[in-house]
Amino acid sequence: MMKQATTFIGAGHMAEAIIAGLLSNGCSKEQIFSKNRSNMERLAYMKQTYGICCDPPIEEMIARSDIIVLAMKPKDVSGALETLKQYIREDQLVISVLAGISSADISEKLGNKAPIVRAMPNTSAAVGESATSIAPGMYATTEHVSIAEEMFSVIGTTTIVEEKDLHLVTGLAGSGPAYFYRIIESFEQAAVSLGLDKRAARSLIRQVLIGAAEMLKDETVDPAELRRRVTSPGGTTAAGLEVLEANHLSEMLYDVLVQAMKRSEELGKSH
Ligand SMILES: NC(=O)C1=CN([C@@H]2O[C@H](COP(=O)(O)OP(=O)(O)OC[C@H]3O[C@@H](n4cnc5c(N)ncnc54)[C@H](OP(=O)(O)O)[C@@H]3O)[C@@H](O)[C@H]2O)C=CC1
Ligand SMILES: O=C(O)[C@@H]1CCC=N1
């Protein structure tokens, strides 16, 4: 269980997913602080829902913390660090979940040698199923990486990557849940258009994804083999899969990653 006091700068969707995961894994709510820039309603919701500390002034939160998690949008990081750099110390660990923003950039904005570890979780953190990538950044030692691993391991799996690979893994795993949600939305709509009751469509297609995901948890199993087991020669699955192939599924998904990765690179340049 994580014992370090932690301040989340930004109490948005990602911060909530991580905080929910930490609390359901036994982390004490007194050890978690969070602040927004101006959305007090959102902060009140976080306080009410999770019992975390949102009232102390930001400088007090930071003074009492071992870890500072940067969880604002990339475009807001410059403004946030302009104010916060006077409070963040070199004996604290800065963990950034920001897409695209390099640790060198964060260090420069901080103007000190605080260690920085970058993490790219996803919103499945809220149910303990994030696929988080962790990369050591400026001034980070293996001990700092271990602390970040400990934090993120309670909200899912952790994979250590090099910082240069974060653009790619952001497009793959940070954004990843949205691709599957989008596919589910279309299958639901298609089933309803073809005459199925909405509730039945919804519950069936969701369970299909949950069941398939459960099967994939065994990493020794090849997804291609799982697919072959479903696909009877000349049967319904083969007919459906032919449509995916005819519409260039692999090329399309390659492009999905390329575009998401490019966007991450742009975020790093344009904030
Ligand atoms: N959503 C996702 O699936 C994932 C997101 N990320 C990364 O997480 C970060 C946050 O994303 P997400 O949670 O979706 O965004 P949200 O918009 O939901 O939350 C961002 C929060 O940051 C706050 N904020 C902005 N500026 C400041 C500031 N100067 N000081 C304190 N708080 C501030 C905002 O408060 P206010 O409204 O008051 O301005 C807002 O509550 C992004 O950098 C994103 O790249 C990473 C992995 C996955
Ligand atoms: O869309 C985004 O920019 C963020 C980063 C990964 C998931 N959401």
Automatic annotation (TrEMBL):
GO biological process: L-proline biosynthetic process
Domain (Pyrroline-5-carboxylate reductase dimerisation) ranges: 163-267
UniProt-annotated binding residues for NADP(+): I9, G10, A11, G12, H13, M14, A71, M72, K73, P74
Principal place of residence: cytoplasm
GO CC list: cytoplasm
Gene3D superfamilies: NAD(P)-binding Rossmann-like Domain, ProC C-terminal domain-like
Every Pyrroline-5-carboxylate reductase catalytic N-terminal domain range: 7-100
GO molecular function: pyrroline-5-carboxylate reductase activity
Catalytic activity: L-proline + NADP(+) = (S)-1-pyrroline-5-carboxylate + NADPH + 2 H(+); L-proline + NAD(+) = (S)-1-pyrroline-5-carboxylate + NADH + 2 H(+)
Pathway: Amino-acid biosynthesis; L-proline biosynthesis; L-proline from L-glutamate 5-semialdehyde: step 1/1
HAMAP family cross-referenced by the UniProt entry: P5C_reductase (MF_01925)
Membership in a protein family: Belongs to the pyrroline-5-carboxylate reductase family.
Function: Catalyzes the reduction of 1-pyrroline-5-carboxylate (PCA) to L-proline.
PANTHER family: PYRROLINE-5-CARBOXYLATE REDUCTASE (PTHR11645), PYRROLINE-5-CARBOXYLATE REDUCTASE 1 (PTHR11645:SF49)
NCBIfam families reported in the protein's UniProt record: proC
Official protein name in the record: Pyrroline-5-carboxylate reductase
Species per Swiss-Prot/TrEMBL record: Scopulibacillus darangshiensis
